[in-house]
């Protein structure tokens, strides 16, 4: 009877240990699933998307002023280049621009004929000439 009682106690203890391990395993699995569910919570998703929307809305509101500022900066840069490299700057450095009767720029002497009228532009005005 004592052996049977000891065996019964041993089996009870073994079953109790296995049951305790099983319960702990289920608790850990449940905690993991709860954490996973909370990470994918609709409320959390809504909060994240609301923050993203707020950020995008702020950036969108700032966009027109930023676009205008960038365009203005590019315009000033191109304007400066034109001031330095444009025809007016060339004329101020002592060069001239000569045009044929049709207003086209004369680039070579072969493009003019004797007795043709030409116009020459300098820094302070224009004058006409006749080719010899």
On the 0-100 scale, what is the average pLDDT? Answer: 92
From the spread of the alpha carbons, the general shape counts as rod-shaped
Low-confidence stretches: none
Strand order in the sheet with the most strands: 1-2-3
Order of helices and strands: HHHEEE
Structural class category: mainly alpha
Q: What's the number of helices?
A: 3
Helix content: 55-70%
Major β-sheet annotation: 3 strands, antiparallel
Strands, total number: 3
Distance between the termini: 144 Å
Strand content: 5-15%
Descriptive keywords:
132 residues, 3 helices, 11% strand, mainly alpha
Describe the structure.
The protein has 132 residues and is mainly alpha-helical. It folds into two domains: 2-92, no CATH class; 93-132, no CATH class. The chain is 67% helix and 11% strand. It is built from three helices and three strands. It has helices spanning 2-39, 42-85, 87-92; strands spanning 97-99, 117-122, 125-130. It has a three-stranded antiparallel β-sheet. Strand 2 (117-122) and strand 3 (125-130) form a beta hairpin. The longest helix has 44 residues, at 42-85. The radius of gyration is 45 Å and the shape is rod-shaped. The mean pLDDT is 92.
């Amino acid at each position: 009877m004592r052996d049977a009682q000891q065996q019964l106690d041993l089996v009870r203890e073994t079953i109790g240990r296995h049951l305790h391990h099983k319960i702990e395993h289920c608790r850990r699995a449940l905690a993991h699933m709860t954490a996973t569910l909370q990470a994918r919570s609709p409320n959390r998703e809504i909060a994240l998307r609301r923050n993203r929307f707020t950020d995008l809305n702020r950036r969108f509101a700032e966009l027109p002023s930023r676009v205008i500022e960038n365009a203005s900066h590019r315009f000033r840069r191109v304007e400066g280049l034109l001031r330095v490299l444009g025809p007016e700057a060339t004329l101020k450095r002592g060069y001239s621009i000569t045009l044929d009767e049709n207003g086209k720029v004369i680039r070579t002497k072969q493009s003019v004929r004797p007795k043709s009228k030409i116009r020459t532009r300098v820094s302070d005005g224009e004058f006409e000439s006749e080719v010899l």
